[in-house]
């Protein structure tokens, strides 16, 4: 399986995962005397911070995803292979892939996290989460078809159930989804329907804890809540969802009818974390050594959402893109020092460049150390930061164009339904229509 | 199901299908005293002439598809419903939908055509056709994954089978697909692979008849063949494909190994055509009256790819977008005259505005009456015409940007794989990757 690369005398570094962490590590190894194999089960890197825009029909998938091979085409030290890592044999230094085995001299595990349902996996079919492009397509399809079904429905109660949307979880993803749904219902769709009125839609954001966006200062989370309510979102704090089915949710003991429920509440680390033999935290994240290596295995590093790292101030390093990038780069630097002269580098320290969360049209919150912003100014900072970090000049241009368009017209250009709806009669949506 | 519209005294016109024919009819009825219900099983109108660009990763799906409701939002006489027409009861004047019954006073059937396998439906899973966005995603996935599989494969013979591509059918779609595949293999991908060389790809275009693009003059079809071969496509004329399976195709009696086969050979009319009781041609198209009405049913019209119409010169009206638009408009005009004073209008006459077919980068053929163009000039005409006809200003802008980008960089921006590959081990491509 190694092909003609086996004759290469350079140490072989295997990177599992082509997200922010894996890519940063691959890039940082460019000046090292190593050959790198990057494994991902997808052919593309995904700009996850904008995934909610695909789910809400504002951006097309190719605008936020780029082929890993294309990103790394000039990094001649890197071979990209599309495959899935199932397990790691730490003693033999071999990764077990779905299509074979791959020996390594050093390993960087960056397989990330996915959404989790706190032991209620049966909720997944009623309340899809948002981690992949397929997830985004599922959410887009459900949201758009809910309005179509409302237009077909004559019974007022059943129609309202199609116009009720529940978003579970008040973190960044939940806030973004709820704010955008409100914009769609209030501004994008009303003129297009003749029977059901999209403005009758209820967007309910349910959070079990006492505040939205817990990573932000209390006054900013309060501002976020007020901005959301101004956009038309109903926010329910301190409210646990105790059941979900096709008819709606249970809010504590009260049933709430809603045909569309979106899940933005829980995160679980990639199952590969538990295969590495080291202690993991409650979410399955690996408790790594200060240099991000796997305890007892200095040639193995764990970075990104899969790693559990505590900062000097006692807080956990958050599961965000900048943290994953910093960790990927740090692991590569540590590995280079080790290969060069066996030396160790200083422990990983997370540099907090600030927190940003968008809420909706001209509404956001931002926090940079002591500087706090909200509303229009925060929204502009968010917009510029996200366009600047998008990989690829073309993507930046297209996303800017799409957003300018959406801003001026209230239109969302990716409002197409493909695939089949799992909830309703699939006969109405055949594959070969 | 009719909702509060039943109290509306205006005649109710039902249009089945939101393609070029159905949309043109709906628009033309704007100044008539009727109410219109447009039914489509999709939520979007598809700009089918550019579908091959989505299949070959050059355009994103939202660039060539727009929600029917959005297109018709200012046409207040039109209600759009997402549903599938299963049958028509001509005596009771009712359309049977998957979700109920819909009575009509006049009916315009514009449900189009799909690809057909000449009695070999078992070939479909090995050789997908191209009519819907899902078809385009399937082709895109198969083409991109074939190169990924080649990169994973050490056995030279097996690797070559992943690098062999067969396109069946030498009409416009086949020519476009083959020309673009050659560009991808020769220009887009080579720098990104480390083991398999995409330039080793063979693109075989197989046509059972004696020439490509049969709608064009003989010297232009010959020029098209030469341009294709210059781009790197191997053209086989007078060659019948007698079998297709996962390993490749049979060309007459010779097996040709190819893991990727694309179908661009046959067209069959929507099955609804045969439910209308009128004679149909071999492809299932309805033989309509000169005014496009269904013989014996003056309040029912059939337009677009579903209608079989013979021109004054004895040729059939071709199954192209301009013909469908002209027919949709003609049926609406005929219906308006009939509703106004019971009069008939003159028979439908197809106005041939010329034929255009693109072959690849700076290569195309065009024919306008006696004027024949090929090469770069024809390509520019094709480019401008297709951008001009694209629905929506934003789509035009984005498509122009995408093409300018692709032209200068040889990159194709929509090179992302989503969904699961039916041919290979789906374990390597799980839904929640």
Automatic annotation (TrEMBL), chains A, B:
InterPro entries: FAD/NAD-bd_sf, FAD/NAD-binding_dom, NDH-2, NDH2-like_C. It comes from the Bacteria. It is an enzyme of class 1 (oxidoreductase). Residues 354-404 form the External alternative NADH-ubiquinone oxidoreductase-like C-terminal domain. It catalyses: a quinone + NADH + H(+) = a quinol + NAD(+). Pfam families: NDH2_C, Pyr_redox_2. Residues 12-328 form the FAD/NAD(P)-binding domain. Keywords: FAD, Flavoprotein, Membrane, NAD, Oxidoreductase, Transit peptide, Transmembrane, Transmembrane helix. Its EC number is 1.6.5.9. The chain crosses the membrane at residues 376-393. Belongs to the NADH dehydrogenase family. PANTHER family: EXTERNAL NADH-UBIQUINONE OXIDOREDUCTASE 1, MITOCHONDRIAL-RELATED (PTHR43706:SF47), NADH DEHYDROGENASE (PTHR43706). This is NADH:ubiquinone reductase (non-electrogenic). It comes from Dyella japonica.
């Amino acid at each position: 399986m190694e092909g003609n690369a086996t004759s290469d005398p350079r140490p072989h570094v295997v990177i599992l995962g082509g997200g922010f962490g894996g890519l940063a590590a691959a890039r940082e190894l460019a000046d090292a005397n190593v050959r790198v194999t990057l494994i991902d089960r997808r052919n593309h890197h995904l700009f996850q911070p904008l995934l909610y825009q695909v789910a809400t029909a504002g951006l097309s998938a190719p605008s936020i995803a780029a082929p890993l091979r294309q990103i790394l085409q000039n990094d001649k030290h890197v071979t990209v292979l599309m495959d899935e890592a199932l397990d790691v044999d730490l003693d033999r230094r071999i990764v077990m892939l779905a299509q074979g085995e791959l020996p390594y001299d050093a390993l960087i595990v960056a397989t990330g996290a996915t959404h989790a349902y706190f032991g209620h996996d049966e909720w997944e079919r009623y309340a899809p989460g948002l981690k992949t492009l397929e997830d985004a397509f599922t959410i887009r399809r459900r949201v758009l078809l809910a309005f179509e079904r409302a237009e077909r429905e004559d019974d007022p109660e059943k129609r309202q159930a199609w116009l009720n949307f529940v978003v579970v979880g008040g973190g960044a993803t939940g806030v973004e989804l709820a704010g955008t749904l409100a914009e769609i219902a209030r501004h994008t769709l009303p003129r297009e329907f003749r029977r059901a009125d999209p403005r009758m839609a209820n967007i309910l954001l349910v959070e079990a804890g006492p505040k939205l966006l817990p990573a932000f200062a209390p006054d900013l989370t309060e501002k976020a809540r007020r901005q959301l309510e101004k956009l038309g979102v109903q926010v329910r704090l301190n409210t646990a969802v105790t059941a979900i089915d096709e008819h709606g949710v249970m809010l504590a003991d009260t049933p709430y009818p809603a045909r569309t429920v979106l899940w933005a509440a829980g995160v679980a680390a990639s199952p590969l974390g538990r295969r590495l033999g080291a202690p993991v935290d409650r979410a399955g994240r690996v408790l790594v050594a200060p240099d991000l290596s796997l305890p007892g295995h200095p040639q193995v590093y764990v970075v990104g959402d899969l790693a559990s790292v505590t900062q000097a101030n006692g807080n956990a390093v958050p599961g965000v893109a900048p943290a994953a990038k910093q960790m990927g780069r740090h692991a590569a630097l540590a590995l280079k020092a080790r290969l060069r002269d066996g030396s160790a580098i200083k422990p990983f320290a997370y540099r907090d460049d600030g927190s940003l969360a968008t809420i909706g049209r001209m509404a956001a919150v931002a926090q940079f150390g002591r500087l706090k912003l909200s509303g229009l100014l925060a929204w502009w900072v968010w917009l510029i930061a996200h366009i600047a970090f998008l990989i690829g000049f073309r993507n930046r241009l297209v996303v800017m164009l799409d957003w300018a368009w959406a801003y001026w017209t209230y239109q969302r250009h990716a409002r197409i339904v493909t695939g089949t709806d799992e909830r309703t009669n699939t006969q109405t949506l055949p594959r070969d229509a």
